[in-house]
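Dear Dr. H.,

I hope your travels went smoothly. While you were away I took the liberty of generating a structure for the chain from your last submission, since the lab meeting agenda had it listed for discussion. I wanted you to have the full record in hand beforehand rather than looking at slides cold. The sequence, exactly as received, is reproduced here:
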Amino acid sequence: MSTKGVYTAVSGAMAQSSRLDTIANNLANANTTAFKKDKQVFNEYVTAYEKMPDTMEVPRVPASVESFYDMNGGDKAFVDSAGSYTNFTQGSLKSTGSTLDVALEGKGFFEIMSPQGVRWTRNGSFQIDGNGRLVTKEGYPVLREGTGDPAQRTIQLGDRNVTIAEHGGIYQGDNQIARLSIVNFNDPDQIQKQGNSLYKLKENSTATPIASNEAKLHQGFVEGSNVNVVEEMTDMITAQRLFETTQQAVKAFDHMDEKLISGLGKL
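The corresponding predicted structure, in token form, is as follows:
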């Protein structure tokens, strides 16, 4: 029996397993502030019988079993995971009443100074550290608008009695003491999750952040997760059923092998 049928079924099972892992992670973060759901992406390789004639490839090697399969595409019927992408659609805004909580509405990210360098986040649940700096829950300084050394762009607050305007300006009384750095990327696919609600550039990416003119800030709110629990549960049921179907296919191929071996023994 050709192994291509088994491999097609096994690759399908592996694809659905990866999909289930992604869905499970989304569900686990359904209540995580500013969490953005992920979607699994797959490439499907089909046999040459389903390709246009001009895509057929004639092998340039001596005739062999391997070259035959290269020509008819019999070894290219499988599902391959192409990784996942992050869905950056807006999450709902939740009122907290805290003057240091800020929700982003629209495209954009807060700039944060992490131990690994500048990072970006949608999580605007901030606080004041022992040095009077505006920081994240992990203690990473939130950066103000500007250029130059990020370590010189931290925001010093005397107390929590501040007003944060829609455009990011931070006021104590009538005086603007800083303006939050809100940036965006022309291609959001150039960044990836790092953990702790932070994003970093993908390896070898040359993208640079640009000032965001679309985002509105809402003081006293945080952005909720964009995970739709009902939708994720529906996708989970679908993926689970597909996984079970591919398992049945693998079992069927095993049964065919057993019958073939048994028949050869009698001959």
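Two observations you may find useful: The first helix runs from residue 3 to 28. The longest strand covers residues 78-86.

With kind regards,
E. W.
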